[in-house]
Amino acid sequence: MTPPLVYQRDIVKRPRIFTIWERKRNSKEVHWAMECFAESMGVFFYVYFGLGSQVGWVVGNILKEVGFSSIFQIGMAYCLGIIFALTVCAGTSGGHFNPCVTITLCIFKGFPKAKAVRYIVAQILGAYIATLVVYSQWKALLDISDGILLKAGTLATTQFTPNGPAGAFGMYLLPGQSLSRVFMNEFVNCTLLAIIIWSCLDPSNILVPPVMSTFVIALAYAASIWGFGVPGVSLNAARDVGARLAAMTIYGIEAKGGAYSAISSLVNIPATILGATIYELFIVDSDRPVSSGGLEFMNHHANHRRTLQQGTGDRRHSVQSMVDLGDTSSQEKPSIATFEHAPGNGNMQV
């Protein structure tokens, strides 16, 4: 027996003002802004919680206080930030939260290019705002840290390093570390992360159902931070560029980061493309059946009310019929979690 198709509006009565706003918000003309808002908020979650622990680590070391933070706490904070971001925002935007993911989805999954540009701007903006908020909340202790370093005569040499107050926000080269090593560090980590992300996007991967993909991806980022955060790793261009722009807003042009900034902000893009290529070439098996969890997830997306209204006029269908939806606006139906329906090219992007 086919289970009934029940929408939230059928069982939850919302105040009229919210109903009117939702109708306006989901119109073709402005829905793209809601998707960008979700991307920006998702990156805010990721950066806000991760950066809070990162600042605690730097300040604690300068003040010589035990218990402010640790590498484990930093990795776990970024991990939880990703979980919160995907849980809250992925149903609206698709849950990219990283320019390299957005760019790679353009190449492999047909994600609309104009939409990708908007997403990347929104992602960087989310990181920028989160950094300024964290700075404001930690400002008193950051000022004390500046004073301690100034009194010791090491502020000028420490400020724009991973051990200085500015280094809690911008990404800077660790003293004694070479650019070639941090390049390798960034490239290898981002390549492996891309392979893991692509495995979570694979609907035939029976070992990673959609409900688990959020935690697998989040823990993958945490593992990279636990193992390679000290030598220096960025992993997310939005976090790097947005936080660096915020650091420049706070500390001036000196916070730009030099040659290392190019590595931390750009290397993740070719690395992610390589990781996706490796998975597509050597791991993907199109003859494997789609898992029940993956099929349920895609059917949930296919039966979204606005998708049905565009395609078949409120008639229930399964995910198989999505391939025949035809042209729709790339700004109309939001992405949902790990699957992207890219209207305009007439297929389901998985």
Automatic annotation (TrEMBL):
<protein>
    <recommendedName>
        <fullName>Aquaporin</fullName>
    </recommendedName>
</protein>
<feature type="transmembrane region" description="Helical">
    <location>
        <begin position="182"/>
        <end position="201"/>
    </location>
</feature>
<keyword id="KW-0813">Transport</keyword>
<dbReference type="Pfam" id="PF00230">
    <property type="entry name" value="MIP"/>
</dbReference>
<dbReference type="GO" id="GO:0015254">
    <property type="term" value="F:glycerol channel activity"/>
</dbReference>
<comment type="similarity">
    <text>Belongs to the MIP/aquaporin (TC 1.A.8) family.</text>
</comment>
<keyword id="KW-0472">Membrane</keyword>
<dbReference type="InterPro" id="IPR023271">
    <property type="entry name" value="Aquaporin-like"/>
</dbReference>
<dbReference type="InterPro" id="IPR050363">
    <property type="entry name" value="MIP/Aquaporin"/>
</dbReference>
<keyword id="KW-0812">Transmembrane</keyword>
<feature type="transmembrane region" description="Helical">
    <location>
        <begin position="32"/>
        <end position="51"/>
    </location>
</feature>
<keyword id="KW-1133">Transmembrane helix</keyword>
<dbReference type="GO" id="GO:0005886">
    <property type="term" value="C:plasma membrane"/>
</dbReference>
<dbReference type="InterPro" id="IPR000425">
    <property type="entry name" value="MIP"/>
</dbReference>
<feature type="region of interest" description="Disordered">
    <location>
        <begin position="325"/>
        <end position="350"/>
    </location>
</feature>
<keyword id="KW-0677">Repeat</keyword>
<feature type="transmembrane region" description="Helical">
    <location>
        <begin position="208"/>
        <end position="229"/>
    </location>
</feature>
<feature type="transmembrane region" description="Helical">
    <location>
        <begin position="71"/>
        <end position="95"/>
    </location>
</feature>
<dbReference type="GO" id="GO:0015250">
    <property type="term" value="F:water channel activity"/>
</dbReference>
<feature type="transmembrane region" description="Helical">
    <location>
        <begin position="116"/>
        <end position="135"/>
    </location>
</feature>
